[in-house]
Design a protein that fits this description.
The complex is a heterodimer of chains A (133) and B (117). Helix content of chain A is 39%, strand content 29%. Chain A has 133 residues and is α+β, with helices and mostly antiparallel strands. Chain A has a single domain, classed as Histidine kinase-like ATPase, C-terminal domain (Heat Shock Protein 90, 2-Layer Sandwich). In chain A, a hairpin with a 3-residue loop joins β2 and β3. The radius of gyration of chain A is 14 Å and the shape is globular. With 117 residues, chain B is an alpha/beta fold. Chain B has one domain: Transcription Regulator spoIIAA (2-Layer Sandwich), CATH 3.30.750. Chain B has four helices and five strands; from the N terminus they run ββαβαβαβα. In chain B, strands 1-2-3-4-5 form a five-stranded mixed beta sheet. In chain B, α1 links the parallel β2 and β3. The chains are: A alpha+beta (133), B alpha/beta (117). Chains A and B meet through α1, α2 and α4 of A and α2 and α3 of B.
Chain lengths: 133, 117
Amino acid sequence: MSNRIDIRNESDVVVARQIARQVASQMGFSLGDQTRITTAVSELARNIFLYAKQGWIEYQEITLGVRGRGIEFIFQDQGPGIPDVELALTVGYTSGNGMGMGLSGTKRLMDEFDIKSSPGKGATIRIVRWLNK
Amino acid sequence: MNKSSIVKIHNALVVTLQGEIDDRTALELQQEILQSVIRYQVSGVVIEISQLDLVDSYMARILSETARMIKLMGAETFLAGLRPMVAVTIVEMGLNIDGVKTALNLEVALEVLKGGR
């Protein structure tokens, strides 16, 4: 069963990272992984607010054979979308408001990171961190 | 909730960042710090972040820009008390705050600022 966090304003980004830390801590992630997961959620929740104005996050615990337990977050919006996903993942690329490290940095913090997006149709970003490495 | 504070200690401004700081609050704090540098005529600023449990790309940018702005105004900035895991995520993400001087804690930062004059 997945849970949902709506992102409609700046304070929802703070709520999202509080929930992320709480969930990661309850699942038994190390302090390091709690920080990685919370930081990644902060980046992607902010992106929803900045680029699409609103959207939502679904998250759930997942289990996959050899990988064991993990946490999955899916960020969805119906904003302008990401015209060039590869460009957006380029180190230093920014469309304005950040350091240009948001997406590429987030990808490095996670075990899995996928983007689906087409112009005008919003974006879906999925991230996973596995409990046992 | 944001529970940050700005106080003057000797010739330095000590900014303690804590609580949940959203992006708008971070920008407001930046303005408040710059105004306080002028109001109190300090030659150094210590931004103490040992209570922050995450620094993402936005916060890293605000911190690094604030330090550059303070430098332009003629004062020196130290970032003090980064938590180990915060340091790890900053490096793993590739965030660049190389231009900002750092100190292990507030005490060390104040000592270095004091010794510098």
